[in-house]
Specification:
The protein is of the alpha/beta class. The protein folds into 2 domains: 130 residues, Rossmann fold; 146 residues, 3-Layer(aba) Sandwich (Rossmann fold), CATH 3.40.50. It contains 10 helices and 12 strands. It is globular.
Length: 341
């Protein structure tokens, strides 16, 4: 009996050993397949590593800038990273600059402002041998290597010319939303361009121009400021001019919600699907469009030129286009949702 028990145990051990061997072979084969598959994958090697740093990691405009930068970067062997987007923690531009400098990136594309803190961070980057290109807004007193954007004065002139096209002598007020957080002189230059053009080309009009501060980094706060304008019926302007996408959409939603379509004329900024649909419906009169993807491409071109030659133009300007009901069909993108009326 004992002999039979011994034989059974031996047979059981042999069976377990065979099963274990088969299992190990199968696992080894699976691992080899994974290794071979990984080895067969194509890798792209980049010569440079650039980062794009903006205030709002999710704004449509900057996403388009990033896409243009990525496309142009791929063509010249530069990897472009949008630093700060889709993170659980919101970092300031200055904190992201610190990270980029510590990481030793080859170049920084930065949404500029005129804060002293940003000037210091730009100097720190340049001193570390990292060129900085400011985009859309400049930091005039900094050590940045180049600026890619639009002329603020020309932008103000274009807004004024849009107003002159439809304004009547019965209209008496224009409200321009400005960023309360910004220390940049760019907004003042926009106003100067607007006021000069209105005085020279629209001198038959008697329009009071009011600057309305809003906090661009607080979408809910912006909506509240704009809605309060309609709640206080004595201060509703004839024209609202918006210098960014967020304010444009907030103004659009407010005049729809308060049944002021036709009573207040909006001139907006950017060409998101929501804004384009509002123009189609006659809720927004027109919008000023900057080719965001082209801006991204120009930033990469400027960065590459400086890195390869040591020189680059100090100021690279872009043209602006105006979209209205006549040409809105060329811009409509139906992928984005729009506010219900």
């Amino acid at each position: 009996m004992k002999r039979k028990d011994g034989m059974f145990k031996i047979a059981l051990c042999i069976a377990l050993a065979i099963l274990l061997t088969i299992g190990c072979l199968a696992l080894w084969k699976l691992q080899m397949n994974r290794t071979i598959g990984t080895a067969d994958e194509a890798y792209t090697e980049y010569q440079y590593h650039y980062v794009l740093i903006t205030e709002d990691g999710n704004e449509t405009f900057w996403q388009s800038v990033y896409e243009g930068a990525v496309t142009r970067g791929d063509s010249i062997g530069a990897y472009v990273e949008r630093m700060g987007s889709n993170l659980a923690v919101d970092y300031s531009k200055e904190e992201l600059m610190e990270i980029a400098i510590a990481s030793g990136v080859d170049g920084i594309i930065l949404e500029g402002d005129e804060s002293e803190v940003q000037q210091e961070m730009i100097k720190k980057a340049v001193d570390a041998g990292i060129p900085v290109i400011t985009a859309l807004n400049d930091n005039y007193g900094s050590d940045r290597n180049a600026f890619v954007g639009i002329s603020d004065y020309d932008l103000g002139r274009e807004y004024a010319r849009q107003v002159i096209k439809f304004a009547t002598t019965q209209m008496d007020s224009v409200l321009i939303f400005v960023d309360a957080n910004s220390s940049s002189s760019g907004q003042n230059i926009v106003y100067d361009g607007f006021a000069d053009t209105l005085a020279n080309e629209g001198n038959h009009l008697q329009l009071d121009v009011v600057l309305q501060p809003v906090y661009s980094d607080d979408a809910f706060g912006t909506q509240e400021v704009i809605r309060n304008i309609f709640v206080n019926q004595t201060q509703i302007p004839d024209v609202m001019i918006c210098l960014n996408e967020t304010n444009t959409i907030s103004a659009y939603q407010a005049i729809v919600d308060y049944n002021m379509v036709g009573d207040v004329t909006i001139i907006g900024y950017y060409d998101s699907a929501t804004i384009m649909n509002a123009i189609e419906k006659g809720v927004i009169y027109s919008t000023v469009v900057v080719d965001a993807q082209q801006m991204g491409e120009l930033c990469i071109d400027a960065m590459n030129e400086y890195i390869t030659t040591g020189y680059v133009s100090d100021y690279i300007t872009m043209n602006v286009n105006v979209v209205n009901e006549k040409n809105v069909g060329d811009y409509v993108n139906e992928e984005e949702p729009e506010p219900e009326q």
